[in-house]
Amino acid sequence: MKRSPIRMESDALLLLKQALAPTAQVRAAQDPIADAVVELKGGARISFALKTWTGSDENRRHGENTVWVVPRAPEGLRERFRGAQESYVDLRGAVFLSFPNLLVDRDGLQPVARSTPSRSFDPFADRSSLVLRTLMEPIHADRVWGVRELAEAAGVGPATASRAVRELERYEVVNVRRSGRESEIRLQDPKALFSLWAGAYEWTRNQSIAVHAPIGDPLRFLKRSKGIFEGHRWALTLQAGASLVAPHATWERIHIYMDATRPIDLLEFARKQEWPMGDDGRLVLLKPYHRDSVWHGARTVDGLPVVSDLQLVLDLWNYPLRGREQAEHLISSQRLLG
């Protein structure tokens, strides 16, 4: 079975723990910018990013503390990594780390078993992510949940909630205390959970069209055009949405989620408004990749619908035009991650 990037990252962390025990500890990072951290005896810490190796030259542009994750690394590739002092995890059971004050070269580690069907469950998928979104709502900070209570609040079935919690427990981001058939669930590490989620999420999965609308000033355009979108479920995201919640970066493009079932629905909507398509259009209409969860926590700000703060940060994290900068400002100003 082919592993997803999130599954490979999880397996890589388990192998790193194996390779470094008992001299050092590895855990998911508290800093959302890093993926994980090594804690050495004496208190020294090394943060690093996990990146899936695809073999392209572009993917070799990386920061100093990057650890490549390779499903099956041939010996020649291992030697290339070692020669260049680039850290890697071969999911077949090898780890090489080359950091200041830390050198690890281990082979023959026990690969992570993947025999049970539950391991194919993705907690970051559309419906299951409703569980994560519920756990991460600021109003629920430090709340202790039962499975059925959490499922009801998230709007999913108990089986979905239970499987999502099991996966999050494996990532060591929730704490679960079991007593008989009952469980007490508490979000333990929201920053580490977001780090994992941001690594799996990409806003470009949303199908979109860019159009030339008569925008001028973006916010004025939206306020005078609200009637155009009436009768449709819609919400602002990316820089346009963030500008209403926590203004920070300059922006020119408007991104709007519309509850379209097909990409052609976006085209038909634009044609009715006589907005011609164009890659450089300043209005971008998005068909949500996550049809259910993208609307979770959406609200009205200054008379305009905006997706939740968490959805804004997920969309912005890998957006090329000052997206990370705006996302970090949102996290700080709205105190999203505790």
Write the layout of secondary structure elements.
Layout: H1 5-20, E1 24-28, E2 36-40, E3 45-52, E4 66-70, H2 75-83, E5 87-90, E6 94-99, E7 102-106, H3 129-136, H4 147-154, H5 158-170, E8 174-179, E9 182-187, H6 190-200, E10 207-211, H7 218-224, H8 226-229, E11 234-237, H9 238-245, E12 254-258, H10 263-272, E13 283-287, E14 299-301, E15 304-306, H11 309-317, H12 323-334
Helix pairs in contact: 3-4, 4-5, 9-11, 9-12, 11-12
Key terms:
single chain; 338 residues; alpha+beta; 7-stranded mixed β-sheet; 4-stranded mixed β-sheet; 12 helices
Strand order in the sheet with the most strands = 1-2-3-4-5-6-7
For the residues shown, what is the average pLDDT?
87
Largest beta-sheet details: 7 strands, mixed
> Cα-atom Rg, whole angstroms?
22 Å
| Strand count | 15
Q: What general outline do the C-alpha atoms trace?
A: globular
**Helical run tally:** 12
Instruction: Report the helical percentage.
Output: 25-40%
Q: Segments where pLDDT lies below 50 for 5+ residues?
A: 114-118
Which percent range describes the beta-strand content? Answer: 15-25%
Structural class: alpha+beta
Alpha-carbon distance between the two ends: 36 Å
Order of helices and strands: HEEEEHEEEHHHEEHEHHEHEHEEEHH
